[in-house]
Amino acid sequence: MGTEKILIIGSCGQLGTELVESLRGIYGDANVVASDLKKADNPVFEGGPFEELDILDKKRFSEVLSKHKPTHIYHLAALLSATAEKNPEFAWKLNMDGLFHVLDAAKEDKSISRVYWPSSIAAFGPNTPRFDTPQYGPMDPTTVYGITKYTGELYIQYYYNRYGVDTRSLRYPGLIGYKSLPGGGTTDYAVAIYHDALREGKHTCFLGEGTTLPMLYMPDALKATLEVMHAPADQIKMRMSYNLAGMSFSPEEIAASIQQHLPEFKIEYAPDYRQQIANSWPAVIDDSLAREHWGWKPEFNLEDMTTDMLLNIKQMYFQGGNN
Ligand code: VAH
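Above: the input record for the complex with (3R)-3-hydroxy-L-norvaline. Below: its predicted structure, written as tokens.
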């Protein structure tokens, strides 16, 4: 793939860890620079360059840019929904100032030819239609995380229109994978449930029965991210953030899919403050624009995902893999 040089900011998170691996497979280890506050203890980060970077530190960011001269930046560093509610002021600062540092760098240095920034279904709110949630419609996010995502969407579009920064973005649903753990999200239960099922045989869910949320299996999330970043610019007709869907399920539905493999598995419910966050989000997303513009099509449904998650997590715990 050409002479691209990639910088991933926030690379030790749930998505970043897997994206580093995928991008190194495409561009070569030396051309993908991973960065985060601290290097995580994971062999993925030993395979190529890593920089310690706090994206709020502009001077350090400039140093990293001068050293590596990236052409594409994936800016993933953010507080997620649940953590952000515990520290709303810092969440605004990190999620917005971090984004501006990246957008301003791309505005000033035209060799940064593409910027990826993730949005989320958290950009929607209680007055958004919950089913078949359209790309355009009422947007009234009630969490600080959702507010930063919606504001960020407006700004990435603004930088595209006003300064020609080639910004690309997806509204992720909850992401589920076995190679890395999520941190601080409202959808995290859907990862923890698989680990608990195999280790404990039971899971106590922090969301209640009937809480249907949109979710996406990590291989599909990676596929969508790479597709939207690699699509020719004229196919990206949406410069805010694309609706993106994979599957939707409630805690009892994911539990039932696990019971197909582990009939003794039990789920209990102890909803906490995250229930209110989940209640403000859509249940089923209409992603027809992504399908029309750049050919999006997910591959995994709930059953396929459960089979794959259980198989891989079992290997990690019981056959000496790493996590
Ligand atoms: C969160 N996983 O729970 C994130 C996501 C759809 C929600 O953005 O905060």
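Notes for the reader.
The mean pLDDT is 97.
The longest helix spans residues 88-108.
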